Amino acid sequence: MSDFHEYSQYDGLGLADLVRNGEVTPLELVEEAIARIERLNPQLNAVVHKMYDIGREAAAGDLPDGPFKGVPFLLKNLLTAYDGAPLSNGCRFFKDCVSDHDSEIVKRYKAAGVITLGRTNSPEFGLTPYTEPELFGAANNPWDLTRTTGGSSGGSGAVVAARIVPMAHGGDGGGSIRIPASCCGVFGMKPTRGRNPSSFDFEIWQGAVCEHVLTRSVRDSAAMLDATAGPTVGARFRLEPPERPYREEVGAPSGKLRIAYSSYPLLGHEVHADCEKGLAATVALCEGLGHEMIEDYPPIDGHAMAKAFLTMLCSEIWADIDEAEQLLGIKATSRHFEPATWGLGLLGKNMSGAELITALRSLERATRQIGRFFTQYDMFLTPALSALPVKTGELQIQGFEAVAIKILGSLNAGGLLAAFKMIDSAAESVFDFVPYTVPFNVTGQPAMSVPLFWNDDGLPVGMHFVGQYGDEATLFRLAGQLEQAQPWADRVPPICA
What we know:
Largest sheet: 8 strands, mixed
Number of helices: 18
Radius of gyration: 21 Å
Distance between the termini: 14 Å
Mean pLDDT: 94
Structural class: alpha/beta
CATH class of the domain at 4-257 and 448-485: Alpha Beta
Order of helices and strands: HHHEHEHEHEHEEHHEHEHHHEHHHHEEH
Low-confidence stretches: none
Number of strands: 11
Strand order of the largest sheet: 4-6-5-10-11-9-7-8
CATH superfamily of the domain at 4-257 and 448-485: Amidase signature (AS) domain
CATH architecture of the domain at 4-257 and 448-485: Alpha-Beta Complex
């Protein structure tokens, strides 16, 4: 299996079939993926921790006979512990940390048969919809190296798009699977809250974070969810298991769906013309498949939701910093973290319990409003983002605000940060870029970015479908239809193995 093109033409299940049929060995696949990392990563900066020895040892051993036996895989550099491997979370404070156990979802990945070869680039604590950590530098988009991969699973989006591996791990707390899927032109499903286990013994960001994979094919995403779905003992969010395997939903008829659609930016202000164009083309595609398309959107107060989500996030960040201090036995200071992370944490430290509860109640009210909206529809369709993949650095805090946040953060002046509202204005520009994804982390509904449109400059524009709570099955049925009607497997970026 030395021919590069031959490796690239298979998805994960396809590679596993080759292993099962004796046409290739897991070690040959591992060496091929390693060669691709070594060749392309200097341009992409997508892989930040290499686990080649771990991968080679696994490939030479007795692998579980799972659906992805022998398939090369990469883990996001966030959340998931892999015994004996580094986990820095894109953060200086954790740069020397090595995990001493496997997270539950990693145990399930191993049982599925994948072979992990490294960790992919992610922003510090996964806080931004772009991947530009100070610790490792920016991940670069294989469609245009000057543009963002999205975030926070940006490195994972890049390695899948560039055909380094057929799928990679991601986590989605505000769009962090769907955003890079859109920016990199791959498929990204965020499952329903509680469908997959949490990497910790608590729910991250009040249950907003859901882990899964970014993939080239719909069927890989479905088959991996079959392999990993199910709660851990004592989990707060529990779901009924699906009626049948998700893999069987791909290609199954969906019936006529009633789909609301809109380009109205729920948490933002403006939408790029190419995103509007992609939405119009997708509406026409869905109508051609026999679905009923109605222009409508949930009547939520986007500003109130963004403010409440940011309030919750700040509280979670300070809790993360405090817990990291106890875990490592090191006093955390501003020099250990990026200015925005530390600044958001200080805001959280200075918030009262009443402020947090008020924010959570606001998010709960919005969830109920969206729930009432979904009594009328099977799905909701939007662009995945309000803009094309932006230039690297464009969403970073800059100029006076950056200097002021750094100074006030170093002085632990959380009150002044709140008074000057500097982080609020920076957060607004971020929500402008991702106005569609966050609401459905709040509600916990499943949602997917599907690579259905490329603009005249060859940049991908993902389309975002949101399903009913607990109904990944219908999303997979529709995704399979879309993949068959408008295939994307042969869409290859300029930087590609």
